[in-house]
Design a protein that fits this description.
Elements (H helix, E strand, L loop, with lengths): L16 H6 L10 E6 L7 H20 L1 E6 L4 H9 L5 E5 H9 L13 E10 L2 E4 L18 E3 L6 H12 L4 H4 L1 E3 L3 H9 L5 E3 L7 H10 L4 E3 L4 H7 L7 E5 L11 E12 L5 H13 L1 H7 L21 H9 L12
Parallel strand pairs: 1-2, 1-3, 6-7, 6-8
Antiparallel strand pairs: 3-11, 4-11, 5-8, 5-9, 10-11
Length: 342
């Protein structure tokens, strides 16, 4: 069994490089609780949040409990599930939709459910940003995507979580994604530039708010020339037909330049997953350390400002690890039956 041993350090990442260095320990140690945490590419949110978690655990638990974590980059949720399955990683950050698909054996995992997964905590929410050019706006609702049928729409890079979640949402709402739009498979920064240049009519850019690509588009185009589309409760119910992972989410006014009104969109959780074979006491201590030191994480990355104990299990798509259950029950939380593993 091969295990990744080191984090690749980018000197250009001056903000997080000290954290990377502090969490970069050799896997080949006599510490049996040296865990590997799979994140995603270094340009997104998964990676720096993973590095922040590993840094916290290494500072608080390595000396006292001989528990350490190495954060590694990866291709994201799809690869992370495979890494957990192959025991090449012990922990991983996953998009809620991927967790639900894997656990239920649907979508990308049709008839092949992945049951060797457990949850620890919700981390932050992936807020859906379906953004279209102002000239196509009729109501400001997601139904306005009908106005850009036949036009070019950026749905995210191929096989990315962005593409998979975007397709799932639009399919549940009755769109024929491949035939209704001329699809572009590009990243957030490129999508923002293409929208500003009128090369695409809209883009799908889910992430924790504020999304820099959306901020850039608002700053360049102005509030009257683009819109983040709203969702209704009825549309949310349709979106959740097969995977009940989304909830209504309010983007407050002034989150983006010139955005004078609240936007009611939807969001799904990104969560910390773990292999079920990791010892209960190890997961208990990791969970406890995270929630007793939230300010540490929140000072490192804004996405973790969404983390609160009362929201720790909100929207989790797979059962909790017994170690996490132990901590949450210890602090008086009621755990739904669907989150208790057999």
């Amino acid at each position: 069994m091969k295990r990744r041993k080191f984090i690749k350090i980018s000197l250009a990442s001056s903000i997080i490089s000290p954290l990377i260095i502090s969490s970069c320990t050799n896997r080949e140690t006599n510490n049996n609780n040296a865990l590997i945490l799979a994140t995603a590419t270094t340009g997104g949110t998964f990676y720096p949040v993973g590095v922040a978690i590993s840094t916290l655990i290494n500072q608080k638990l390595t000396e006292s409990d001989r528990i350490s974590i190495n954060a590694i980059n990866s291709a994201g949720s799809g690869e992370n599930i495979q890494l957990l399955k192959n025991k090449e990683a012990d922990l991983a950050i996953l998009q809620g939709l991927f967790g639900a698909m894997a656990w239920q054996g649907k979508g990308k995992y049709e008839s092949k459910p992945e049951k060797n997964l457990r949850s620890i905590t919700m981390l932050w929410e992936n807020v859906e940003h379906f953004v279209i050019s102002g000239k196509y706006i009729k109501t400001g609702n997601i139904e306005d995507l009908k106005s850009i049928k036949g036009q070019t729409f950026s749905i995210g890079k191929r096989n990315s979580g962005t593409e998979v979640s975007g397709r799932t949402i639009l399919n549940e709402l009755g769109f024929d994604v491949d035939n209704d739009f001329r699809l572009e498979f590009i990243g957030y920064k490129e999508s923002s530039a293409a929208l500003q240049n009128d090369r695409i009519a809209g883009m799908n850019t889910p992430a924790g708010i504020p999304v820099s690509a959306v901020t850039q588009a608002y700053a360049a185009m102005g509030n009257n020339n683009l819109t983040i589309l709203d969702f209704t409760k009825e549309q949310l119910e349709k979106v959740n037909t097969n995977y009940s992972v989304w909830n209504l989410y309010k983007i407050p006014a002034n989150t983006y330049p010139g955005q004078s009104q609240d936007i009611m969109t939807i969001a799904q959780p990104n969560f910390l997953a773990v292999r079920p074979g990791i010892e209960e006491n190890v997961v208990y201590k990791v969970t406890k350390t995270i929630y007793e030191n939230l300010s540490f994480l929140q000072n490192i990355h804004k996405a973790t400002l969404a983390m609160k104990l009362e929201r720790a299990i909100k929207g989790l798509p797979i059962p909790l690890h017994p170690g996490a259950v132990k901590y949450y029950q210890e602090v008086g939380m009621n755990i739904p039956k669907n989150l208790i593993s057999d």
